[in-house]
């Protein structure tokens, strides 16, 4: 993907593009690998490829970074039924990625949907993760939901109509960046997102996953990350929260930090993906935290 290489080039990152066999997606998963040191798996939000982590990857080159494309978003394969049993499939997918990469218990850095999936993995297999960094509001944590445009897309039929009326374009990516409060995007990132949305499996995967996660009035209860579940995640956890995150205010982050046994909250400028513009501020804090909790 030329857009991926341009994104990495902007931040002077030398990364190996690796494909690994993953039974849960009926094909291969794509992982960007960069740096040398303790292993860190990076899992992004819905609709966004691993290369979107590039601004933060540039600040963490003393770690071995594994930025994973989620199924259907980027260069990772998917199946037509992946979203039908999303929680089990997400856990299986992440577990298979760790197995194929021969990572027993790495650190995780995650955003949004990736944070939800990582939480499910920890709750199911607590020994697979040694420490966590969540950047931006995790999807469906506590009583949070998603902005109205995403909830509309989650409605069967309506979502298909809306995506046909507004196909991927530079204007549509600009509107997306405004919705998540990260406007303007650097040109390389805007191009990366546009090229990702134009991939053949993207639209159907995006809509089916939204339908599984959301209703018009909010998150589906069976998908929510509850206070009781958060209380069971006792891994050292670092939370970075954008002051203008439209998926959940910093008050949600404060509640998380009070519920989770070993969580630390930092509020920063930005929206739902604050590392895009705050990586130089966030990076050193993450580095110190991960080294502190390394073996």
From TrEMBL:
Residues 40-276 form the AB hydrolase-1 domain. It holds the Pfam family Abhydrolase_6. GO terms for molecular function: hydrolase activity. Keywords: Hydrolase. SUPFAM superfamilies: alpha/beta-Hydrolases. This is Alpha/beta hydrolase. It comes from Fodinibius salicampi.
């Amino acid at each position: 993907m030329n857009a991926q290489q341009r994104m990495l080039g902007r931040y002077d990152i030398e990364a190996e593009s690796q494909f690994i066999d993953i039974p849960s997606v009926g094909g291969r998963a794509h992982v960007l690998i960069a740096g040398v040191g303790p292993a860190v798996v990076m899992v992004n939000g819905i609709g966004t490829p691993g290369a979107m982590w590039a601004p933060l990857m540039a600040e963490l080159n003393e770690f071995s970074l594994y930025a994973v494309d989620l199924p259907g978003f980027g260069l990772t394969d998917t199946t037509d039924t992946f979203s039908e049993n999303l929680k089990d499939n997400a856990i299986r997918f992440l577990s298979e990625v760790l197995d194929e990469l021969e990572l027993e218990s790495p650190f995780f850095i995650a955003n949004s949907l990736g944070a939800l999936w990582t939480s499910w993995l920890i709750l199911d297999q607590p020994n697979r993760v040694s420490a966590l960094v969540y950047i931006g509001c995790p999807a469906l944590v506590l009583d949070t939901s998603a902005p109205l445009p995403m909830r509309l897309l989650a409605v069967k039929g309506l979502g298909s109509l809306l995506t046909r009326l507004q196909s991927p374009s530079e204007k549509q990516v600009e509107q997306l960046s405004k919705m998540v409060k990260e406007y303007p995007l650097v040109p390389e990132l805007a191009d990366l997102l546009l090229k990702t949305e134009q991939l053949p499996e993207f639209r159907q995967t995006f809509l089916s996953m939204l339908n599984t996660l959301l209703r018009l009035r909010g998150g589906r209860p069976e998908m929510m990350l509850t206070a009781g579940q958060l209380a069971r995640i006792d891994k050292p956890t670092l939370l970075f929260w954008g002051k203008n995150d439209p998926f959940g205010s910093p008050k949600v982050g404060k509640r998380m930090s009070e519920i989770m046994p070993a969580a630390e909250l930092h509020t920063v400028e930005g929206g739902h993906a604050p590392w895009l513009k705050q990586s130089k501020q966030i990076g050193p804090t993450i580095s110190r935290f991960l080294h502190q909790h390394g073996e």
